[in-house]
Automatic annotation (TrEMBL):
Entry protein name: Pectinesterase inhibitor domain-containing protein
Family: Belongs to the PMEI family.
Signal peptide: 1-26
Organism: Vicia faba (Broad bean)
Pectinesterase inhibitor domain location: 34-176
Gene Ontology MF terms in the entry: enzyme inhibitor activity
Length: 180
C-alpha cells in the first residue's frame, strides 16, 4: 500500500510540474506576443515602421520592455548611430591631408562628442524620469546640430548618408516619445 501511495504522490507531483511548466510557457509566450504587439503599435505611429521595428527588435531587452523601455531602446539606437558617425568622422580627420577639410571634420567631431557623451544620456535619463518633453527637445537639438555640421560642406557633405539615417532615427524617436 505504501508503494502505491508513494507512486501516486510521485505521479501527482510529476503531473503538477508538467502542468505548471506548460502554464508558465504559455504565459511567457502571451507576454512576448503582447510586447511584440506594443512594439508594432508604437512603430506604426512613426514615419518608418520597418526601421523602427528593426532598431527596437535588435535589442534583446525589447521583448521585456514597456512603452518607456521601448523609447529608451530607440534613444540607445540613436546613440549607437551617433557613435558610429563620430567614429567615421574621426577616421576622416586622420585620413585627410587637406587642412581646410580636416578643420571641418574636427568641427563636426566636436559637435558629435557632446551628443554622444551628454545629450543622449540625458535624454535617456529624462525618459526614465518621465520628462518626455525634455527628451523630445533633445531629439530636435541633435537634428539641428548634425545639420550645422553638414552645412560646413559647400559641395555636399561626405556625411549625408549617415546623417540621413540618423535623421530618420531621430524622427522615429520623437514619434515614439510623443506617444508616452
Amino acid at each position: 500500500m505504501k508503494k502505491t501511495s508513494a507512486f501516486m504522490s510521485f505521479f501527482q507531483t510529476l503531473l503538477f510540474s508538467c502542468l505548471f511548466l506548460q502554464l508558465t510557457q504559455s504565459s511567457t509566450q502571451m507576454n512576448d506576443i503582447v510586447l511584440d504587439d506594443l512594439v508594432d503599435d508604437m512603430c506604426k505611429k512613426t514615419p518608418n515602421f520597418d526601421l523602427c521595428s528593426s532598431t527596437i527588435h535588435s535589442n534583446p531587452q525589447a521583448g521585456k520592455s514597456d512603452a518607456n523601455g521601448i523609447a529608451v531602446i530607440m534613444v540607445n539606437g540613436i546613440l549607437q548611430s551617433v557613435t558610429n558617425t563620430l567614429s567615421f568622422i574621426q577616421g576622416l580627420v586622420k585620413e585627410t591631408k587637406d587642412p581646410e577639410l580636416q578643420r571641418k571634420y574636427v568641427s563636426c567631431a566636436e559637435t558629435y562628442i557632446p551628443l554622444e557623451k551628454t545629450i543622449l544620456p540625458q535624454a535617456v535619463d529624462s525618459i526614465n524620469k518621465k520628462k518626455y518633453g525634455l527628451a523630445i527637445f533633445s531629439m530636435g537639438f541633435i537634428g539641428k546640430e548634425i545639420d550645422s555640421c553638414n552645412k560646413q560642406f559647400s559641395n555636399g557633405s561626405p556625411l549625408n548618408e549617415k546623417t540621413g539615417s540618423l535623421h530618420q532615427l531621430l524622427d522615429i524617436g520623437t514619434a515614439i516619445l510623443k506617444q508616452l
